Amino acid sequence: MKAHETLQRFPNEAASEIFQYLYQNDKPAYRACLQVLASRRRLRPVILERKTRAERHAWMHAELARKANDDAATEVLQTWLLGGHQQLICSFLDSLGIMHDGRGLLDTLPPQPQKGRLQEAIDRLLENHSRFAAIAYLHLFCEMDIADWPTLKEIISEDSRLCLAPQRLAA
User: Fold this and answer.
1) 124 alpha-carbon distance from chain centroid
2) DSSP label at residue 41
């Protein structure tokens, strides 16, 4: 699933947590997202800033769920995960024995691990971390240019814990 498709399936409460995290912890990223989305809709950001935060976040959620905004959705999810869920990322990579910089970033990706090891790493993620963060991370991981792990994609598509029901978003 692409980032915008992931956000399409996130419930409003989970998406709101993402925007709230950005608002509280990474104001430049929050403002940049708002600016990009507003300009793509030919709106002035000040109009959005006048809305309540809940209304603004619902609008941002709906906009980031659009295919045209997949690049912005990817950026938002990456910022949220690397900022607020770094331990999740490091835990996944560590459980697979993948070297990283200590913050979850890596230069090269080794060949795909065995299915059993991948399943164990996913099980640990789901036991110890937010389900929505785990789902977002695993889907973003699969979409990376350097990731060619068909078994991971297979596990994600078959594991009911990683499925998100499509949501209806207000426009």
Assistant:
1) 18
2) T
